[in-house]
Structure to design on (328 residues):
């Protein structure tokens, strides 16, 4: 009975042991958690994006740091001089250029000009320039003015039966108006205004100290100088409570990308007594004249009195002589 029972138990255990051995011997990999699975998916996506970037070139940020490599585009300013075709004609035009730009300069003959099929030459100083376009009676050059060295005079010369020429002067915008002399008085206010056609990048005011120009800084002395910006192209300097020491030369400077322009002012500060000097001179002259007249009248009166006394004395002597003669 015990032997039968032992055989039965072994028969039941053998299949179990066989299953366990089969499970342990199978090539099962390590278990993977949900976090590991998610990380694997993220890594896979990241690698996929990296591969896409590698195949399509640098990313957007890198591309923005690189220069575009394209030519800068400028607005084109057009200027024209019309020539009558009369011998000895020489016309000129001022062209103000404050910032880099393209300029088209055209020389054109009048429609009914007698100058036919002229030989046309464009020059800058002694350098010959070929024109970029032409029609039957006009010739044009196009310039890219990107730095101050491109400024200057450009001339067209038309030769035929007669010779005519025209000159374009390319320059930084000038400050409007002529040099001014300001005459004012002590404790008064001096006002200087500078204006340009185009708005400059910056305005600067200077005062002359010997041979040097010293920049005026209103923030360092608000009780003496004030700079007021009326608009982008108009600037104003005020000097307060003038003294004789404020007399001198002042400059305003307008700075453009292609250069700068300056304007000169001369300030003369007079004493408060200066306006009274003419009046005082007139008063002195009147006093002298009145005194002279009074002295003359006194002198004349005295002379008159002395004359009357002499006359009376003479008359008295005559009468005495007459009486003496009658007595004889």
């Amino acid at each position: 009975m015990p032997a039968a029972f032992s055989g039965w138990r072994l028969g039941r255990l053998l299949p179990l042991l066989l299953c366990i051995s089969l499970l342990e011997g199978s090539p099962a990999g390590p278990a993977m958690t949900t976090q590991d699975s998610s990380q694997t998916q993220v890594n896979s996506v990241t690698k996929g994006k990296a591969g896409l970037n590698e195949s399509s070139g640098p990313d957007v940020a890198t591309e923005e740091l690189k220069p575009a490599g394209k030519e800068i585009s400028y607005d084109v300013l057009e200027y024209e001089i019309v020539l009558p075709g009369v011998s000895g004609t020489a016309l000129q035009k001022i062209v103000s250029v404050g910032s880099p730009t393209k300029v088209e300069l055209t020389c054109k003959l009048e429609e009914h000009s007698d100058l036919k099929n002229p030989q046309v030459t464009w020059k800058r100083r002694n350098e010959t320039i070929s024109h970029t376009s032409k029609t039957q009676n006009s010739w044009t050059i196009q310039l890219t003015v990107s730095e101050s060295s491109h400024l200057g005079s450009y001339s067209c010369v038309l030769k035929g039966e007669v010779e005519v020429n025209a000159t374009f002067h390319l320059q930084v915008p000038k400050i409007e108006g002529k040099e001014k002399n300001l005459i004012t008085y002590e404790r008064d206010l001096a006002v200087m205004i500078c204006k340009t056609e185009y708005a400059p990048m910056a305005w600067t005011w200077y005062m002359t100290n010997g041979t040097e120009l010293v920049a005026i800084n209103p923030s360092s002395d608000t009780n003496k100088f004030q700079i007021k910006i009326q608009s982008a192209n108009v600037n104003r300097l005020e000097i307060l409570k003038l003294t004789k020491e404020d007399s001198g030369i002042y400059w305003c400077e307008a700075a453009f990308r292609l250069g700068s322009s300056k304007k000169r002012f001369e300030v003369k500060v007079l004493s408060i007594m200066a306006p009274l000097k003419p009046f005082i001179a007139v008063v002195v002259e009147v006093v002298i004249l009145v005194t002279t007249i009074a002295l003359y009248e006194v002198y004349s009166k005295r002379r008159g009195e002395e004359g009357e006394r002499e006359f009376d004395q003479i008359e008295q002597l005559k009468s005495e002589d007459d009486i003496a003669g009658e007595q004889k």
In short: The CA atoms of residues 151 and 170 lie 5 Å apart.
